[in-house]
Amino acid sequence: MNTTASPATVFDIQRIRADFPLLSRTVHGKPLVYFDNANTSQKPLPVIEAMNEHYREHNANVSRAVHQLGEEATAAYEGARDKLARFINAPSRNELVLTSGTTQATNLVAYSYALPRLQPGDAILTTVMEHHANIVPWQLVAQRSGATVKAAPIDQRGELILEQYVAMLTPEVKLACVTQVSNVLGTVNPVREIARECRKRGIALLVDGSQAVPHRPVDVQALGCDFYALTGHKMLGPTGTGALWARREHLDAMPPFFGGGEMIREVRFDGTSFAEAPHKFEAGTPNIAGFVGLSAAIDYYQSVGFEAIHAWEQQLLAYATERLREIPGLRIIGEAAEKEPVISFLIDGTQATDLATLLDLQGVAVRSGHHCAHPLMQFFGVPSTLRASLAFYNTREEVDAFIVALLKVRKLLM
Ligand code: PMP
């Protein structure tokens, strides 16, 4: 059995894989190697079953009903908020707005926090390595307010140039943003240091945690940021789930963004009053079953343990990187000192999309393209990369199969 022993945990990879039914399917007649985890993760049985059970046994709408089912659905949905709050060590469950994902979370901050504060000449600071979800919402509100969006630079290794980020925290910056982990490069950014510098200057900091939460324990209080956005489907949960954590003082000062049911105290034609945060940001019927699934995903992470996950993923990352480096003409994009298991690369004389298409025929799922990070592609002067992104349920044997397939398809294209 393929296990790695550490004093605290024994990581039983075969038992873990047995929890993910999709991992044992074939694609084009070949055993699946799923290396597109940064795009979306696969879901373990407890997540699938929890959602199933919700619809079979407990389905009702939240908050409005006084009947038993309504209470059960509300308890399950609000229970997910409690779990997520503990998962990222939020000081209070009421600081956690449940959203459809990171994109809704960053847009909420853009329209409800940033836009009312932005004056012509102000700026929002982001970085060159961000996902479009941490760029475009800022551009939209900047256009409306006469503000600008500035991007802090990175170096050729794919590391943020911290001194330059800090130097760009000038008085006109009303919001600073950074991803904790890059979805293309795997780079882990020095968020604590950035948060410290932002606080010294009274600038609020938003951290995009989409690619961090699947890999490492997150403590928003220790990070010291003001906003933390995450998405559920990359962390074993269903699509259409996510959250925004924000400091209470910000949530209290922010006007609602979406209006409708669930977010009001009283509606009158001569003036509507709103519910307290977080409910004032959760108009309409939420993705109840989705959050039931996300709760189960959090339980699953906790049962495996991030210590074991980290150790296994870092071994896989090192092994995959070493094996890829053996391939002639292969260039890895993103060689930061601290990385999560995401490897972007190119092979001389081939197109990333051709490679990905042929790899699929070998049963290997990787992503090719710009990864919703155009400015990063522009920085590296490439239209796209091939990206292998790993999860704790992947194995060295899968890395070997991926390398064999890659060598084969490379030969076909050269
Ligand atoms: N930020 C990062 C770093 C991401 O990788 C992604 C998803 N690719 C997002 C934001 C957007 O997440 P979602 O589409 O789930 O809202």
- Rounded Rg: 22 Å
Largest sheet: 7 strands, mixed
Taken as a percent bin, the fraction of beta residues is 15-25%
* CATH first level of the largest domain: Alpha Beta
Number of domains: 2
C-alpha termini separation: 38 Å
CATH superfamily of the largest domain: Type I PLP-dependent aspartate aminotransferase-like (Major domain)
- Report the count of strand segments: 19
The chain-level mean pLDDT equals 96
Cofactors and ligands: 4'-deoxy-4'-aminopyridoxal-5'-phosphate
- Output the strand order for the largest sheet: 6-12-11-10-9-7-8
Question: What is the second-level CATH architecture of the largest domain?
Answer: 3-Layer(aba) Sandwich
The outline comes out as: globular
Q: Count the DSSP helices.
A: 14
Enter the CATH topology name of the largest domain.
Aspartate Aminotransferase, domain 2
Show unreliable segments. 1-8
What fraction, in percent, of the residue positions are helical? 25-40%
Task: State the secondary-structure class.
Answer: alpha/beta
